[in-house]
Design a protein that fits this description.
The protein is mainly alpha-helical. It is built from 3 helices and 3 strands; from the N terminus they run αβββαα. A hairpin with a 5-residue loop joins strand 1 and strand 2.
Length: about 180
């Protein structure tokens, strides 16, 4: 019974506290003496009132937008991820090899442990493949962007050549 009352008290306290926070406002009151007072409650009737803050209207500081990564940084991140995974692969191999060697000394079946090792290594190689695929996707996206830029430049060059040929023809016919 005592626990039930304690739980009820905690719940009531939390609800009360939450309701205070949900409608939190800060009032700036100017009393008769001309003194400015900041308070959570509304100002007395004879004081000037202005609301300083409302909880719902407070603008939260937003993190600065992330700068787009360059192709070089994406590739470097991918290489680092692959190197980290290679270390994990080496460590996993070594740990399982020690465990398997101990079981072989004790003439105990190592099948279960070797299966575990294979599954762990499979997961690591899958992770490494994802890192390489991420790099490949970034490189392909950059290649596509460069190809579009190249096409646009080639079109501009073609337009300039056409205009130059037209001007040359006009100049020659005027002479």
């Amino acid at each position: 019974m005592k626990t039930s009352k304690q739980i009820s008290f905690v719940i009531a306290t939390c609800i009360g506290f939450w309701s205070l926070l949900a409608h939190a406002e800060m009032y700036k009151c100017l009393n008769k003496a001309g003194k400015t007072i900041y308070q959570a409650n509304k100002c007395p009737v004879d004081a000037k009132v202005s609301v300083v803050k409302e909880a719902d209207k407070i603008k939260r500081a937003e993190p600065a937008p992330a700068k787009p990564k360059t192709l070089d940084s994406v590739i470097a991140d991918g290489k680092q991820a692959a190197a980290d995974i290679d270390k994990k692969i080496k460590t996993t191999n070594e740990e399982y090899d020690v465990k398997i060697a101990l079981l072989k000394k004790q003439k105990v079946s190592t099948f279960k442990l070797e299966t575990e090792k294979s599954l762990a290594l499979k997961d690591l190689y899958t992770e490494k493949t994802k890192a390489y695929k991420s790099n490949l996707a970034a490189v392909k996206a950059e290649e596509k962007k460069i190809n579009l830029q190249t096409t646009a430049i080639e079109k501009k060059i073609s337009d300039i050549k056409a205009k130059t040929a037209k001007k040359t023809a006009e100049t020659e016919s005027a002479e």
